[in-house]
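Complex record, two chains
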Amino acid sequence: MAVANHADFSFSGLIVSVLSLFLSAMFVLSSVGPAIVTDSLISTAMVSNTRYGVTFPALNSIENHDEDSVIAIGSSIIQAAVDGKCISDSLENNDVNVYNLGISGANPYTEILQIPALIRADPELVLLDLGPNGLWDFKSDSNLDEYIQFRFTINSIAMQHEDIGNWTDLIREEDMSWIAFNEVERIKLTQSYSQKSFEQGIQSKLSEYLDSINYEQKAPLPEDKNWIEYLMQPSWSAPNFELKTQEEIVKYFEENMPRKATQGVYNPKLNDTLNHKSYEYIISELTNAGIEVLLVATPHYPMVYSYLEDGQLDNFNDTFERYSSYDGVKGVNMFWEKWHDSMFKDRNHLGINGREYLCQRLGPIIDGILDGKNVSEIDSNVGTINLSNYLEDSCNGNDFTTIVDEQYKFIQAESYSNCARGEGVAFQDRWEFESSSDNEGSGFLHALPEDSSQYKGKIAGSRLDYQLEFTTEESYYVWINMKGNSYGNDSIGISWKLQGQEYLPIEKYDSFGWSSKGQWEWEPEFNREPMIINASANDVATLSIWMREDGVMIDEILITTDSNLKPKTIDPHQLINQPLNCEGSDSIWQAQFDGEVTIEAEEYSRCSFGEGESIAHQWIIVEDLNSSQGVYLAAMPDERVHMKEERGPGLHYDIYFPSSGTYYVWISMRGNSYGNDTIGLNWNFNETDGNMSVIASFAWNSYGQWEWEPQTSQVPLNISVSGGDLATLSVWMREDGVEFDCLIITNDVSFNPYQED
Amino acid sequence: MDFVDLDYYLYFLPAVFILAMWVSLGKRKPQIIILLLMSYLFFWFASGWYILLLLISTCVDWNAGSKMHASEDDVIRKRWLKASLITNLGLLGVFKYLDFFIESLNLVSLKFTDSAEIDTFGLLLPVGISFYTFQTMSYSIDIYRKKQKPYDSFVDFACYAAFFPQLVAGPIVRADHFRKEIENSLRIDSVQFRLGLTLIIYGIAKKLIIADNVAVHANSVFIEGEHLANIGLVWWATLCFGIQIYCDFSAYTDIAIGSAYLLGVRLPENFQTPYAATSPQDFWRRWHISLSTWLRDYLYIPLGGSRNGTKRMIFALMMTMLLGGLWHGASWNFVLWGLVHGLLLIIHRFGKNIGFVNKFFNVTGKFGVLISWFVTQICVFFTWLIFRVEETSILIPSMKTFFGIGAHFDLREMYDFLPEIKLLTAVIVVAFILLHGISGKVGGGKMWLSRRHPIIWGIICGVMLSLTFYLRPAETVDFIYFRF
């Protein structure tokens, strides 16, 4: 055949041009494109669930991974149930990784495409999801068509030619066009997601430079270091039933379950459905390849069973039993077990507690199978698992009631009177005691396990109760010594209630802050006020602490009447503690007519605590032979605190006046400077406080000496009484450091204590 | 069949190539016959029985050309010219404008009288009618003007009228040009072959990656007609449409020229980086060159051109641009588009002679050129807004917003409203602007690429094709100029 008559036309050049164009296009189209699209499918928000694209990349990774493997496949039920890492850790066979490749919405038919790749991955065991939901006949139901098309398309993009296996015989005619049987078809299917993949890629790159571009990698990629862990522990969906009240759950079942119970998922067939055929294909391919199969059926929420008729699931039971009897197949049918409500996320999916429990159940079984035992023998070992941790709500305290009778009352966190396990998803976390010599008492309580769980809103985390009995009507401030290692694990909830009443709104205490990273701190700080318990004398109240974020630690509780306490600036343990009820001698002194009566300072009838800044101050008895009766009272601590606006600690002397007249008061006192030499003095008569008289001791010519005051021209404090009156003389600490020895009451206006002495 | 149809590339073009270049044994006559038959086949696939209109136009103009050339009698010559014009303009008038005319009439009568509406004929626009009628008319007019002689063979002329690469949407080829291309046997060398394929791949990439992606954004705004007070959205959509129409039309032209190259025929360029234009006049020298030169030669100059006084020039310019607008389609927005372009050309023609304007550009140098470019492009893109939006209820608020009247700017609203593929489209727009600018400065890379080693050429083109496949949107849009 002649080519156009032109010397420059090269036939070989044409062939090379076209061939290189074709080859380079095919390379990009069949290798680069599918790789980009697959990466986007498994790591971005391109499709609603990143798990949909994970199957083939996962199996390739498992095939190339050194460890032995156990692979769980099936629907969202197995996805929600299997914590591969937990099971791997619990296995006695150390070098076995358990992978969870369950996919939301999957049925046996949609999973048959992966079987050749699954066989190439060469697992020791395959956990195959087999519940009633996998045995229905969806042939007549077109609702699933879109899902099947979607799954087949996504799987086709990541498939290799060697993944085309005997499953092709099972594929329905209408689904053929969604499976890539050659490179051209794969390229076509890849194109349906390619544009979005590029969009995601650009979004990811731009987000590195522009804050306004939001991009979140939803899941790791095969080259990421946490990829293998992700295959073992997929991102489980958020709690659902765990957040609902019992009433809401009951309502859900009443509204939905009657209809649901009539649907295919609760009316399984015995055989011959596409799903049955797919199960048989999967089992025969795996067992023929020498891979053992463990059929797993997990239970549904306990309320489900009451909606099912007797015998409604017989076909499921029979099918399970039949398949379990196949060579190389074992079965663990837990469907009929009643598991605790808190183990479920919804009607048919396990939640975090259920996963943890299943982990303990499956671990020994897998170990046994890998060691060549049969399941019935292994299953009997389930009794060794302590189910009480999962099925019972037990929690015990010491029933102790703390009497709040001191200004600073400390309670060790571990000395809780009572406790309660968390509700729903919070059931998993407990307050664990950890001994530590660095903490008050013998240790502290730690919210464990620490896996970033947070219980806010309606979810109640594990609770600690502290029973309190108050002796005095006061406002009590509650401080907690606590810590957390990050913003996400540092908070508790706190509230209180009087006996027989409801809790007040829960307040939040958190510890971790920009200035206090991971340190034990008294909370709340940072401009927040502590919770206040307003109690009357003899009130009994419960102070409760809820776990709000796991990982938080609490050491000690402080209940104080000191409204000005700032534990950030002073360790409350170093403060001078004193009883809330200040007690004196209850003596009544009798004034003398035509004479004087001397009263020792330490012989006060009653006393009272200071207010405000002086709440920690007190009159301390000091032994000194140079003082009257060998002791005097000192206003301590000497911190140069002036109690002018608020009253300092008071000493009250009840005086009986048998005769009428005017009586004068002299005080023996001393101070070491102008700043620590004054007291306040007043009478309380006829239930009325008299004017305060300020009496100073220190003077330029008398510093540091005991002096009778007032020694200047000041008239001593006096009171005019009728015969038989009773009045109270109060001595108030006004400046700390002042010392007070004794006082004299006389009706002699010209009385001079120096002359008389 | 059209250029976005895979069958064209997998079967039709290779078949024509093999038949014309090999089966014909490189002989001219069989080559032309093959091209003619395959062109008719192409037209049949694209338009079915409307092929008869093409045949009518071809036969009438062939006869008119021959008769005019044979006769020295002006009456006879004029009669045949009229026959050509009436036939071609009649075809255009009936199939393109009749229903539009009736509809407009109905609209007016509805407004002012109670008379009953006239039924429209519901005629479909035959593919390529605006192009082949203009081509054959120019043939007859040129013979009437004695600027060229008729084709020697009917087959050659029929091939000129029906040559499939440019049949549907141009470029509008002059008879003389085509005659020269086919006067010898059709030949092709390796570089030409690769150049042809390069142009086709360029065209496909331009159409599917750029035009079709930005079209989704332009359509989302101008079809849904929401948030039209957001100046960001209106400007973005207008920019997208401006890019879409250029890439769409120039892509078709690239494919047409590339297809013709593979068959040994060179077609004229139709675009020269129009968005680098620094004046309205410059724009029309770069945009749809084959149409603008046709309008100049067969409409503007006969109407008086610029050598018969200012009034005549204004009249000729406005008429040319109005009819040029109407040529694009039977819709008033095209007329308005032509009107605005006419006004811009007039303003530019007078404005550039004003003293201070002249002085400004003399003083400012490159900065002045930059300002000219900016103002020109604002005007051009504004006309694209008119061109794109037929619906008055969308067009008027969009025009107001374009100039900031009652407008606001809300980036978040823009982001939320625009379709799902946003960033990719934005990257495409930015890439287009850069590449268009570079192309304007250094020329396209088509020739450069065609001269590379076959393997390098193959790799680059293969990657380009792959990207086209993966970056195209889910739905392919027809070439815009197919409608004209």
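Note: Chain B is about 75% helix and 0% strand.
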